[in-house]
Every structure is written in structure tokens, then in C-alpha cells.
């Protein structure tokens, strides 16, 4: 299909998305009218509030301290009635209010970076309430993750967990999930494999491509995720098959989405960038009283178009819509209905080729594809229903059902230096082959999770017991096309606008489906105030069938039945700290990514185990959290080619990553925030039958050192500045290539630093102007690597935005 035809198809799909959005907003015949009436009533109320009590600014000089003291001073200064739902809320730390603000803006300042929001119940009465989307408990401890599988606070959960909150995403101007997780050391970004474009991550040295989740349920599609609907991004490190099923060797990445809330608001952003970025987002929330108390509707939308700084031709274009409706919030039974549609139409970029195991010495802007025929079109439609019922304070049941449908069409060019090229060949005479990677695929995922959480005592011992059942069916139908006769181009001066020519032949037509089921139980046993013991077990059955209809028809079926285990011991020397030891297992079936061949159909799953010792501490009433951990993850039986039969694979390799990591996240002072992390990972191919010469080599895409830091400081005059960056150490593109006697490593990329900065200025309570600059020094570095190509990172980019909130 031509690029013009793809564009036309994209416009039709965009229209379909708009129809779906309209259907979502008009699912109930009177809902749109109700929302309009409610919006008018809300605006009238806000006008009354503004006229009665917030029409003039005044100076405040209220010191930081307990929220009860700060609000008491606000009451005296503004003559407003400010209500707390419970006296325990008064113990929460408040940064105070210093400066000239309207009363409403002063309340926002008093609640800044807390778990609380506010609303006017009448022109003179302010109700402070818990914001469900935040993950901070009233006690000052970080609350459990928003999943029934986790019952303890983050402080007492024996596992390394990194959380990138929504405020950090906003301060950094993040527009992709990949940029969000750059805040977490120990994660590497990889270039797309031939048949799997989209987010491709490595966590603690092992691929996490199939370990991306949304609200605790697998996000199966191959697409580039935009965080416009994310409240926060969570990285859970170490094997977690007990909680999440197959995979999770290095960890899990979970996107916690935005949920409807009890108060009205409307916010958004408009951005323009030096890389020709045009981006707009919108976040609308409104209670729906006609559907009963505790009902609210929320709508998030996004549209983005951008080029890539210092890269020719490459372009990104996507939009998304995410409506959600919650019923019964605050009651015994709550229900949430949500839908996500994200669609993208890119000119993809596979970077530059390797030349004699080094990046080709060419301009960073070189583009080797065909500007008029290369494309990457993706679509994700995800519908979700979640119902939670609280039988009592000690027993809760959660039922969650999701259906996902993903579409992907791609034709991308990978430049390859001809094998006949020698070091003596003049570089300006080298022409590269333009390998066309072409896929048209549809994936679906239907899954159901049922969880029950119960708390009870056996004598003096307290239990938090979680049990659950998961059932799912997933399908994949990729069609791959191979081209011959594609014209080559110069390595030094490629022509991306040359006419495409070539003959395409369908090389693979695959129909794959898998049915999986899992049952699990986790028990956290509290032995007094200072000791917890966690024990968990899970049993999974994974039944995969893959057929191929091109050439000689083939069909393969494999059924794997695998247990997983987890155990941990937690010691709490103080209420603000914990020390833990954790052991966990996970497994990777051969058909994990719905791919099965004659070489792998006979192989049982790879097995993994992790040992971790760590400590976590919360300081300054929970404002600052720190953690550190020592860990070792071992893949006991990695898949490798059979040395005696190249058509088969065997489980004969051992891979290991061990290291230390730590992070800090929170507020150093009332005005100064910090998020910093560091990871040292020593990776090694411990044993190999197929590649004995590579034993001792560093694992692919695993830097020994990685670090990230981001800090912001609130200045007077309603200004804020911030800055930071990331460091990624030396990485290799392949694990199994032996050491080179000259360079020490083959296809290795040097480490790099990238520095970023931001500044913002508030204009009243409603508007902010924000400037973000990424890659301040315009460093030329390689961001993503693959055995066949390397993708340079973007050059210096400035993004100017207007943020608004009503």
C-alpha cells in the first residue's frame, strides 16, 4: 500500500475514532445534556465563589507544618469554612503558603504534593477530600499499589518498586512511555526487532517487551505508548510470575491510568517545539449526579505531531482518547468503565548501519529509508470493566474484564552494509542494501481477573491473604512480505526521496492463538509490629497453537504447565523503615510472544530466579522516600541453537545479572524536590553450549552503570525551575559475539550523558507557561541499539507549552 493510501486510511480511522468518542460521550441519551447542565452549574458556582471570596489576591505568610495548623491560619485569613473529613488528615505535612495569591490558589498551595484535593460545596465552604488517584496514605506511608495483589504499603513491600508520578511527567514534558521510564536506572531502551515494533525495554538486564501492563493487566500490543492517560508509571523489579503470570524475568512496567474523581475540573496543555512538535492534551472530570452519589465521568484526549531533532524525514503523528465512568465511589460497591483508543501514523526510523562492528562514521541526520513509502501505522483499542465490592472492612472482591484489539502495519528500511565490503573499501564508494521489513498484523487479548483480599487473625498473628484466578485468550495474525529488487543508496549521502522499486512476496502468513489460565495465592503474615513473612504460589497453564499457511503448511501446538513461587521476610526496625529479603521465580514459555517454530516447539519454559536484599526508608513525614537493594537474577536454562542440529534449539545457556541499586524520591525542602536513581549491573553469560567462546561476555543491552536525576525548585514570583539528566554506560548489541582482541567488545556503544532543563511561570491560579529543553548540549549519542542497526538519540529540542486548569 502506498504512503498516500496509508494516509487516507489513517484519516478514515481517525474519523472512526471520533465516532467512537461521540458514542462514548452519548452512550446514555441524556448524559451529554446532563454533563452540559452540570458544567453550567459548576461554572455558575465558580463564578459565585469568585465573586464572594476569591476575587482579590492577598499576601499570605503561613509556615510549613501540619495541615491542621496551615488550614487554621487560612480560615482566619480568608474567612472561608474549610472542612477536613477526619481529624487524622490534619497530621499530613503541608508546605504552607507564602506569597500573594487568591484564597483559592492559597488552598491549592496548602495542599500541594499531598494526597488531598478540595471542592467548594457552597460559595463560602471548602471541603478537603482524599484524591483517589494519589498513592500517599494519611499515615505518611506510601500506600499499596492500586492492585488487589498488593496489600502492604510500598515501604513494607519486599520488592524494588520505582514510581514516576504524574507531576514528574508533567514537569518534564514527557510525551512517550520510553521517556517516562528514563527516570528509572536499570532500564535500557532497545530498537525494535524485525517483527515487533513499539516499546522494547530491558529491565535489570532481561527483555521486558511482553511485560508491559495497564492497571495490572497485560498490554499485549506492539505500539509506542503515550502517557497522556497515565496518573503514574510503576516499575516493579525482579521476577513476579506469582502476581502477573508468564514472563517478568527482570520485572514489570505498569501504567496506572487516570480515574474519575469526585470534583469538577478541566485542564490541558498546548505545546509547540523546535522539532516541529504540535501537541495538545485535555483532561475533563465531572461528577454525574443523575447516576447517583459517587458517580463521575472523566475524559482525556491527546493529539501530537512531531519530527525528530537532528534526524531527517522521521515523523511521529498520533492521537488518543480515553473516556472513563465510575459509579459508587466511596461506597461498598464501585464500578469503573474505561476505554482507550490510541492511533499512530509515523515515518519510522531505523537509524544508521554498523560498519565493521562500529557505528558507521556518517552524519547523524542520515536517513536510509524511503520517505514516501515507509510507514508505521498502529492502533490500540482497549475496553475495561472493573467492579469491586467490599463485603466488610476485612473482605474485598475485585472482578476485572478487558478486551484489547491492536492493529499494526509497517514497512521500514534497515540499511545493511554488503558482506563483501572490506576495511580497505573507500567509505564514499560504499552503497548499502535497503532491507524492507514489512508486517501487517492484528492482535487481540481477552482476559478476566478475579481477586479476593481478606484480612484475619489466627491467634496473635495477622494475615493479609490474596487469592485469584486469571483466564485469557490472545491471538496474533501477522502477514510478512519480503521484497527483492529494492534499489540501494550511498552510505555517506543517502537519498531518502528516491523512487521505491521492488517486488513483494508474502513470506509468512501466521495464525496464532493461546489460552492461558492461572490461579494464585499470596499471604502476608504479620508477626507483631516488626516482622512480616510473605509467601506466595501460583500455577499457570499456557496452551499455544501456531499455524503457518505460506509455502509448506505447518502447525505447532505446545502446552506448558508451570508453578511459580515467592517468599520474603521483612523486618521493620522503625515505623519509617524496613529491611527485607526476597526470593522469587518466573518462567518464559517458548510461545510467550505467540511465536512457535519447529526449532522451539519441543522446548519447556526457561526458568528464572531472583534473590534480593534491600531496605526502604521514609523521612520527613513521608515527604522523602529512599531505598537500596542488592540483587541477583539468573536465567537457568536460556534457549540456544543446538550445536548438533542448527534447525533446533536447546535449553543450555545460563545468564546472570547481579548488582546494586538505589533511589531517592520526594521533597528535600518545602520548595525543593528530587528524584534520583542509580544502578550497577554486572551481567554475564555464565555458560553456553552453543557459544562457548562468548562465556563471560556482557549481556546485550545491559550497561554496567546507569543513573537518572531530576530536581525542581520553586522560586518566588510563582516560578519553578528544574533540571537533570540520564547516564547510560557502555552497551553491546549481542551477547553471543566473542570478544574482539583489539576493541575488547564487538558492536559496542560507548556510554553517554544527556542533560535536560525546564522553567515555568504561573499567571494566577489558572495558567502556567512552561519551557522544556532536552539534550541541552546537543550531544550526539546512540539511544537504541540492535544487532542490525543503531538509532541516534534526538538532538537539542525545546518545547514551549501553555498549561491551564479550571
Structure overview:
This protein is mostly beta strands and 806 residues long. It is 10% helix and 53% strand. It has a 24-stranded antiparallel beta sheet that branches. Strands 8-14-15-12-13 form a five-stranded mixed beta sheet. A three-stranded mixed beta sheet has the order 3-7-6. α3 (67-78) packs antiparallel against α4 (103-110). The protein is globular, with a radius of gyration of 27 Å. It starts with a helix and ends with a strand. 45% of the residues are buried.
Low-confidence stretches: 14-55, 132-141, 740-745
What is the rounded distance between the termini?
Answer: 45 Å
Estimate the helix proportion, in percent: under 10%
How would a textbook summarize the main sheet?
24 strands, antiparallel
Main attributes of the structure:
24-stranded antiparallel β-sheet, mainly beta, single chain, five-stranded mixed β-sheet, 806 residues
Task: Please outline what is shown here.
The protein has 806 residues and is mainly beta.
What secondary-structure arrangement, pairings included, does this model have?
Elements: H1 3-25, H2 31-52, E1 58-62, E2 65-66, H3 67-78, E3 81-83, E4 93-94, E5 97-101, H4 103-110, E6 116-122, E7 125-130, E8 161-165, H5 166-172, H6 177-180, E9 187-189, E10 201-203, E11 206-207, E12 212-214, E13 217-218, E14 230-237, H7 241-244, E15 251-257, E16 265-273, E17 278-287, E18 296-308, E19 311-327, E20 333-346, E21 354-355, E22 358-359, E23 375-392, E24 395-416, E25 431-458, E26 461-476, E27 479-484, E28 489-490, E29 503-527, E30 531-548, E31 554-574, E32 577-588, E33 606-619, E34 624-642, E35 645-667, E36 672-687, E37 705-715, E38 719-728, E39 731-732, E40 748-749, E41 752-763, E42 767-774, E43 782-785, E44 790-792, E45 797-805
Parallel strand pairs: 3-7, 12-15
Antiparallel strand pairs: 1-5, 2-4, 6-7, 8-14, 9-10, 10-11, 12-13, 14-15, 16-17, 16-45, 17-18, 18-19, 19-20, 20-23, 21-22, 23-24, 24-25, 25-26, 25-27, 25-28, 26-29, 27-29, 29-30, 30-31, 31-32, 32-33, 33-34, 34-35, 35-36, 36-37, 37-38, 38-41, 39-40, 41-42, 42-45, 43-44
Amino acid at each position: 500500500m502506498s504512503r498516500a493510501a496509508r494516509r487516507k486510511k489513517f484519516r478514515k480511522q481517525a474519523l472512526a475514532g471520533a465516532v467512537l468518542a461521540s458514542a462514548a460521550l452519548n452512550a446514555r441519551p441524556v448524559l451529554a445534556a446532563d454533563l452540559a447542565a452540570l458544567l453550567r452549574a459548576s461554572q455558575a458556582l465558580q463564578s459565585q465563589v469568585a465573586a464572594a471570596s476569591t476575587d482579590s489576591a492577598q499576601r499570605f505568610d503561613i509556615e510549613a507544618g501540619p495541615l491542621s495548623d496551615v488550614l487554621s491560619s487560612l480560615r482566619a485569613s480568608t474567612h472561608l469554612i474549610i472542612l477536613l473529613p477526619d481529624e487524622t488528615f490534619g497530621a499530613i505535612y503541608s508546605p504552607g503558603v507564602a506569597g500573594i495569591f487568591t484564597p483559592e490558589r492559597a488552598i491549592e498551595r496548602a495542599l500541594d504534593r499531598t494526597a488531598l484535593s478540595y471542592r467548594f460545596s457552597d460559595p463560602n465552604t471548602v471541603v478537603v477530600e482524599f484524591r483517589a488517584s494519589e498513592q500517599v496514605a494519611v499515615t505518611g506511608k506510601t500506600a499499596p499499589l492500586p492492585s488487589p495483589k498488593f496489600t502492604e504499603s510500598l515501604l513494607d513491600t519486599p520488592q524494588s518498586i520505582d514510581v514516576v508520578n504524574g507531576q514528574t511527567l508533567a514537569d518534564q514534558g514527557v510525551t512517550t512511555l520510553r521517556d517516562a521510564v528514563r527516570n528509572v536506572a536499570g532500564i535500557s531502551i532497545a530498537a525494535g526487532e524485525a517483527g515487533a515494533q513499539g516499546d522494547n525495554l530491558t529491565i535489570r538486564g532481561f527483555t521486558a517487551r511482553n511485560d508491559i501492563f495497564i492497571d495490572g493487566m497485560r498490554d499485549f500490543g506492539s505500539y509506542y505508548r503515550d502517557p497522556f492517560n497515565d496518573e503514574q508509571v510503576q516499575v516493579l523489579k525482579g521476577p513476579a510470575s506469582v502476581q502477573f503470570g508468564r514472563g517478568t524475568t527482570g520485572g514489570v512496567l505498569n501504567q496506572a491510568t487516570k480515574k474519575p474523581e469526585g470534583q469538577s475540573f478541566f485542564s490541558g496543555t498546548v505545546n509547540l517545539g523546535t522539532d516541529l512538535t504540535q501537541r495538545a492534551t485535555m483532561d475533563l472530570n465531572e461528577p454525574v449526579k443523575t447516576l447517583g452519589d459517587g458517580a463521575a465521568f472523566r475524559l482525556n484526549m491527546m493529539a501530537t505531531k512531531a519530527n525528530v531533532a537532528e534526524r531527517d524525514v522521521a515523523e511521529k503523528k498520533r492521537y488518543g482518547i480515553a473516556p472513563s465512568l465510575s459509579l459508587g465511589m466511596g461506597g461498598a460497591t464501585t464500578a469503573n468503565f474505561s476505554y482507550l483508543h490510541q492511533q499512530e501514523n509515523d515515518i519510522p526510523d531505523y537509524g544508521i548501519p554498523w560498519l565493521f562492528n562500529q557505528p558507521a562514521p556518517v552524519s547523524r541526520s542520515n536517513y536510509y529509508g524511503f520517505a514516501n513509502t515507509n510507514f508505521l501505522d498502529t492502533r490500540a483499542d482497549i475496553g475495561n470493566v472493573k467492579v469491586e465490592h467490599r463485603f466488610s472492612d476485612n473482605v474485598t472482591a475485585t472482578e476485572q474484564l478487558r478486551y484489547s484489539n491492536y492493529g499494526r502495519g509497517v514497512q521500514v528500511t534497515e540499511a545493511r552494509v554488503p558482506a563483501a565490503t572490506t576495511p580497505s573499501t573507500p567509505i564514499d564508494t560504499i552503497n548499502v542494501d535497503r532491507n524492507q521489513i514489512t508486517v501487517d498484523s492484528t492482535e487481540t487479548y481477552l482476559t478476566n481477573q478475579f481477586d479476593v483480599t481478606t484480612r484475619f487473625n489466627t491467634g496473635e498473628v495477622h494475615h493479609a491473604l490474596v487469592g485469584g484466578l486469571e483466564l485469557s485468550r490472545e491471538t496474533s495474525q501477522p502477514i510478512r512480505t519480503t521484497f527483492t529488487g529494492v534499489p540501494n543508496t550511498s552510505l555517506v549521502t543517502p537519498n531518502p526521496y528516491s523512487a521505491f522499486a521492488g517486488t513483494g512476496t508474502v513470506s509468512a502468513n501466521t495464525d496464532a492463538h493461546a489460552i492461558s489460565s492461572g490461579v494464585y495465592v499470596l499471604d502476608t503474615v504479620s508477626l507483631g509490629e516488626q516482622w512480616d513473612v510473605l509467601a506466595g504460589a501460583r500455577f499457570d497453564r499456557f496452551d499455544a497453537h501456531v499455524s503457518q499457511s505460506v509455502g509448506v503448511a505447518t502447525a505447532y501446538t505446545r502446552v506448558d504447565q508451570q508453578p511459580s513461587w515467592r517468599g520474603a521476610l521483612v523486618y521493620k526496625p522503625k515505623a519509617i523503615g524496613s529491611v527485607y529479603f526476597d526470593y522469587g521465580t518466573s518462567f518464559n514459555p517458548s510461545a510467550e510472544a505467540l511465536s512457535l517454530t519447529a526449532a522451539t516447539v519441543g522446548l519447556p519454559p526457561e526458568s528464572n530466579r531472583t534473590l534480593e536484599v534491600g531496605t526502604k526508608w521514609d523521612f520527613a513525614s513521608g515527604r522523602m522516600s529512599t531505598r537500596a537493594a542488592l540483587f541477583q537474577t539468573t536465567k537457568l536454562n536460556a534457549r540456544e541453537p543446538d550445536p548438533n542440529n542448527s534447525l533446533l534449539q536447546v535449553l543450555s545457556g545460563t545468564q546472570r545479572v547481579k548488582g546494586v541499586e538505589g533511589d531517592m524520591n520526594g521533597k528535600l525542602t518545602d520548595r525543593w524536590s528530587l528524584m534520583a536513581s542509580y544502578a550497577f549491573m554486572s551481567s554475564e553469560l555464565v555458560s553456553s553450549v552453543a557459544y562457548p567462546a562468548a562465556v563471560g561476555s556482557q549481556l546485550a543491552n545491559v550497561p554496567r552503570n546507569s543513573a537518572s536525576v531530576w530536581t525542581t525548585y520553586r522560586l518566588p514570583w510563582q516560578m519553578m525551575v528544574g533540571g537533570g539528566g540520564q547516564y547510560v554506560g557502555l552497551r553491546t548489541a549481542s551477547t553471543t559475539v566473542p570478544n574482539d582482541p583489539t576493541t575488547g567488545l564487538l558492536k559496542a556503544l560507548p556510554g553517554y550523558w544527556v542533560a535536560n532543563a525546564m522553567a515555568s511561570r504561573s499567571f494566577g491560579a489558572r495558567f502556567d507557561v512552561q519551557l522544556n529543553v532536552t539534550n541541552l548540549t546537543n550531544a550526539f549519542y546512540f539511544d537504541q541499539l540492535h544487532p542490525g542497526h543503531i538509532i541516534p538519540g534526538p538532538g537539542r529540542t525545546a518545547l514551549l507549552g501553555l498549561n491551564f486548569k479550571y
